[in-house]
């Protein structure tokens, strides 16, 4: 199998919106990479804070380009950034993420060693507080549940060739949520995606229950909007549970107390986090069901339009 040249160029593409609090940390982390990117393209989707000014004030040696495109969804922002990239190898991550020092080196290594279409890295959440420990199992693949065979990466840690991006049609710009899941599914279907679990970025979690609800809402909406069957089935089981609870209310108490504890105990060590789990489960279920109903409405509306 033909190997790629070791001197190929790499473009890191990041979509941002209102990331003034985190963008500096991301740029510093990219500059400290053991293998530095040849260019960094930051696509700003209509920030109303000082994100763009923070990027301009960055004084590092990275080659940084900012593309301000107004308020568009992440899918369109990613496609614009990738199209503007001058490199044949594209690496994507998100605002709010902090790559570990060897992230880029490890992520692109399979692209150097053999001709693969894409490399899926791993993202891990910061769980310093009890709240973060309680929320993490609901929004991330924790290390003890990580399975390279079934792992479907987000675009927080992903590398692919520009050629492959074109061939699969890029990110679906009609999807406002879960566009990265849809894109990763297409990459996986090519049969040329490998997983590099040591290519890690650290990811910031939602700061409160309201943010967590809307995060889960967006995930479920995107799952239904894109009709991603594995998640659609899981969503259907949640609706099924609450139909059962309507007829047997006593089951609800056992479910809301025992189910999250039994399911997530391995990822929770702080006593206070155990107390959060039942409420987090309830908020998550509400976010899933309301997001799924919204996603179904969008899906059917598009079907009727066709």
Task: Outline the structure in words.
It is a single chain. This protein has 306 residues and is of the alpha/beta class. 50% of the residues lie in helices and 16% in strands. The protein folds into two domains: 10-203, Spore Coat Polysaccharide Biosynthesis Protein SpsA, Chain A (Alpha-Beta Complex); 209-305, no CATH class. The chain is built from eleven helices and eight strands. The chain has an eight-stranded mixed beta sheet, with helices on both faces. Helix 8 packs parallel to helix 11 (271-305) and helix 9 (229-247) crosses helix 10. It is globular and about 60 Å long. The chain starts with 9 loop residues before the first strand and ends with a helix. The model has no long low-confidence stretch (mean pLDDT 88).
Structural class assignment: alpha/beta
- How many angstroms does the end-to-end distance come to? 44 Å
Strand order of the largest sheet: 3-2-1-4-7-6-8-5
Mean of residue pLDDT?
88
Q: What is the CATH topology of the largest domain? A: Spore Coat Polysaccharide Biosynthesis Protein SpsA, Chain A
Quickly count the helices.
11
State the fourth-level CATH superfamily of the largest domain. Spore Coat Polysaccharide Biosynthesis Protein SpsA, Chain A
Gyration radius, to the nearest Å? Answer: 20 Å
Low-confidence stretches: none
Tell me the β content: 15-25%
- Principal-axis shape: globular
Share of helical residues: 40-55%
What is the helix/strand order? EHEHEHEEHEHEHHEHHHH
Number of domains: 2
* Extended strand count: 8
Query: What's the CATH architecture name of the largest domain?
Result: Alpha-Beta Complex
Q: What about the largest sheet?
A: 8 strands, mixed
Highest-level CATH class of the largest domain: Alpha Beta
């Amino acid at each position: 199998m033909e190997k790629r040249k070791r001197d190929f160029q790499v473009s890191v593409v990041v979509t941002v919106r209102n990331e003034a609090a985190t963008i500096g940390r991301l740029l510093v982390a990219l500059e400290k990479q053991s293998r530095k990117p040849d260019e960094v393209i930051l696509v700003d989707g209509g920030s109303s804070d000082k994100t763009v000014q923070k990027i301009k004030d960055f004084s590092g040696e990275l080659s940084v380009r900012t593309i301000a495109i107004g308020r568009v969804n992440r899918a369109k922002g990613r496609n614009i950034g990738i199209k503007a990239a001058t490199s044949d190898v594209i690496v994507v991550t998100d605002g709010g993420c902090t790559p570990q020092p060897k992230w880029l080196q490890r992520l692109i290594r399979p692209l150097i060693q053999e001709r693969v279409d894409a490399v899926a890295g791993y993202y891990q959440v910061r769980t310093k507080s009890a709240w973060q420990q309680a929320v993490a199992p609901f929004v991330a693949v924790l290390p003890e549940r990580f399975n390279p065979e079934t792992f479907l990466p987000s675009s927080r840690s992903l590398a692919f060739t520009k050629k492959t991006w074109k061939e699969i049609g890029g990110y679906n710009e009609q999807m406002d949520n879960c566009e990265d899941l849809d894109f990763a599914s297409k990459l996986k279907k090519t049969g040329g995606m490998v997983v590099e679990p040591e290519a890690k970025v650290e990811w910031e979690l939602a700061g409160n229950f309201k943010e967590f609800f809307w995060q889960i809402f967006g995930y479920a909406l995107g799952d239904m909007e894109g009709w991603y069957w594995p998640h659609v089935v899981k969503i259907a089981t949640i609706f099924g549970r609450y139909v059962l609870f309507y007829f047997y209310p006593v089951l609800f108490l056992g479910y809301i107390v025992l189910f999250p504890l039994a399911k997530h105990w391995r990822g929770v060590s702080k006593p206070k986090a155990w107390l959060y789990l039942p409420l987090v489960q309830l908020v998550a279920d509400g976010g899933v069901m309301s997001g799924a109903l919204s996603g179904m409405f969008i899906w059917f509306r598009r079907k009727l339009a066709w």
